[in-house]
Amino acid sequence: MNPTINKTLLRLHFAGNSSSLQRRMISEWLKDPHNRELYYEWLAEWERQNPQFLPDPTPKLEAYVAHMLAHPNDRQEVADEMIMPPSAPKTTWKAWLGVAAVLALLTLFGAQYREELWYRSYHTAYNDIRTLTLDDGTRVVMNSNTTLLIPRFKFRFMDRHVVLRGEANFAVTHGPNDEKFIVKTDNDLKVVVLGTEFTVNSRRRGDKVLLNKGSIQLEYLQEKEVKKLLMTPGDLLTRSQDGHIEKRKTNIHQNYTDWINNRFTFDGTSLQELNHMFQDNYGIFLKFEGKELHNFSLYGSYRAKSAEELILALTKSANLQYSQNQDTITIIQP
């Protein structure tokens, strides 16, 4: 770390009191990804200690983006003036300058850097479960092989929103100003809530949403049109890869969130469904040898902390055999 770039200097910068030379030094310092993490950490601390009032900037953001699209030749000029990450505003006009600086950076850099700039990423590996508590008190339990993106600038400018890739259980706190909490997925599904408990599973084969408490509204694309659907406790919604929607009532105390406690419950589960679960949670592929296995179904409840523990318990109870070669398990009917 450049010894001249320290917390004291950055706090001056956040307050809008840094010189042009200091801003240039900070810009060079921020080229290191580790320094960017430190920068955002200290910015979040400064914002907590120096709360500011900002009106809803959405119309300003939309107008700015529209201008940039209509005048593409202006982008470089704007970028040259606003290459620095946003300083925390002292007044409202400085706040908009900070927002414009963020948008200029988003315009300059590719998708990967834009995501890194705007979001902090949390990831679970295969066979891993993680619990997070967000700044607003919302609790999130992430299943294996899941990524959660949370805005670096907290939920300051607009409704609370996160991006989910994988599966997670949310216990959402009610915001002081009735702010919505929005979960977005890469499958063009949006879950909109005020305060409730629900689980979202968004994988390659589609989405599943189970509502435990409260109420939520789903928004999704169907034939290029945004559709909305309300859910009440006990509703289970599935959305296939081709966009087909199915909603049905289920027992909210069933097995849909057993994974939080490392328990797996099967009630007529096919081996193909088991294969999908092993791919999603463990990165392991299942192969089946024997014609009898095509219509084989699994029943029972098992506690397991690893793929090895689970496949051992399943094959033992079903009188099956298995062998493993790296990331492939072959199940055999003896």
Main beta-sheet strand count, sense and barrel state: 13 strands, mixed
Number of helices: 9
Please name the CATH topology of the largest domain: Jelly Rolls
In terms of structural class, how would the helical and strand content be classed? alpha+beta
Unreliable runs: 53-58, 75-92
Number of domains: 3
Please count the beta strands (DSSP E, at least 2 residues each).
Answer: 18
Q: How far from one another are the termini?
A: 62 Å
Reading off the top of the CATH hierarchy, the class of the largest domain is best stated as: Mainly Beta
Structural features, described:
This protein folds into three domains: 7-117, no CATH class; 118-249, Jelly Rolls (Sandwich), CATH 2.60.120; 262-332, Phage tail protein beta-alpha-beta fold, CATH 3.55.50. Helices cover 31% and strands 33% of the residues. The protein is globular, with a radius of gyration of 24 Å. With 334 residues, the protein is of the alpha+beta class. Strands 1, 2, 3, 4, 5, 6, 7, 8, 9, 10, 11, 12 and 13 form a 13-stranded mixed beta sheet that branches. Strands 15-18-17 form a three-stranded mixed beta sheet. Strands 14-16 form a two-stranded antiparallel ribbon. Strand 10 and strand 11 form a beta hairpin. Residues 263-331 form the Protein FecR C-terminal domain. One of its GO terms (molecular function) is sigma factor antagonist activity. Residues 122-216 form the FecR protein domain. Pfam families: FecR, FecR_C. This is Ferric-dicitrate binding protein FerR (Iron transport regulator).
